[in-house]
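Example with several molecule types.
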Amino acid sequence: MNATRNACTCSLKVNGALFRKDVPPTVILLDLLRECLGLTSVTQGCDHGHCGACTALLDGVPVQSCLVLAISVPDAEVVTAEAFFPPGSGLLHHIRQRLLTAAGPQVCSACLPARLLCLLAQATDGQPPSPAEIEAFIHASPCLCGGQAREEPVSMSRSRHEGVA
Amino acid sequence: MRAFAYSRPVTLGAVVQAPPCSRYLAGGTNLIDLMKADVEQPEYVINIKALPLGDIRPLPDGGGGLGALATNARTAAHPLVRARYPLLAAAILAGGSPQVRNMATNGGNINQRTRCHYFYDIGTVCNKREPGAGCAAIGARNRVHALLGTSPDCMAAFPSDMCVALAALDARVNLFGPGGARQVRIRDYHCLPGRTPWVENVLRRNELVVGIDLPPVSFGSHYTYLKIRESRTCAFAIISVAVGLEMEGGVIRHGRVALGGVATRPWYVPAVEDMLRGRSPSATLFHDVARLLLHGAVHDQGNADRLALAPRVIQRALWQAVTGSPPCQPCAGMP
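Resulting structure tokens for the full complex:
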């Protein structure tokens, strides 16, 4: 069996862009996304696969990136919240402010991008989720890395229509 | 995480030639976590995700076949499982979080290791990590530890939800190794800790799980998977109960019950089948079933409350299954 301790080629498509780099087998996808690519919407929470703050879409499905070896998913397509809320666009900030206004300081900002990413992953028909869908999702997916918020439905249509997806 | 050598073979023949101190990597939800905690220190990590073991299909005998590399999420959502094995789907969906279920595989679920705090904490002694070192859980904070199947050397609970349903369904585990293929009943797959807590299952060196065979009996109408836990998601069971009944004219023609969260392996007592057969549901019967299931249970100072809770949860689950009510719903027919 050919096994190697040396750096292996990590080949991914991240938010639509090809990424290729030699990394040691021990590198975790979460660290690669944050430290090599600067995608800080993917957050280190518990680092043990419980809290969900590190969620990314791997070939279209939400996974805990803190439990994925970067080299173990060759040629996978990785999507982070930055694909929907580009840095500098203010879209994520807008949603966060609305949630904070509605629910106060109980809203957990650390895992909000991950939770929105899970919601967007369900929108397979390309249509923005309705307020009812958002409400149902928020109720069904409590924040595990901070205080559970009683969040008001927020229309995603603005973020979708204003040019990110 | 310690350095390791990595490979990604594409054939079963290559996989089972793995060198000593190897670990098979599939979903990674348990192995990577344990490697981060320094509990697992493999010299070699063999990524088996390229193997063609992800299928879910009907079997010629009327049962169902689950590939070892099919994810838990895909298994629970598969039409075959949803239509014919709703008990299994309910148990899978009670475990982990959606993200974890998207990663975790059926083979990995069977082989997952205990979530005992002391097993994870390398600053304490643990017979699973270091044979003969001792058990830090006994006499300490141990509310989530096992009541059944324990030994003076280990009281770590087995954490899987899926395996509890598989035990109630009497599933078979298909194995493949250097010596060829073989099949083991899920009830015989996991070992009691005894004096060797580090031996957790019957896997031989370099063997791996390649699939799970579900029998034709599916308990499609009268079933429940009732899981009591401290959080709605991503929490392990305080106690879980899988019940499958075949009812005919208000009488139990055939029934099986398995427990999770309270034992060192998925807990199944064959005599319960005889006790249920041909009987009408009653509080007395279900009280006796709970007593039989919990026979031999031993509590420590930290988990005595769960021994009081367990019979009530078992009886509630049985009533839910009798009425065919959805899992985790209060039972209208319960006295």
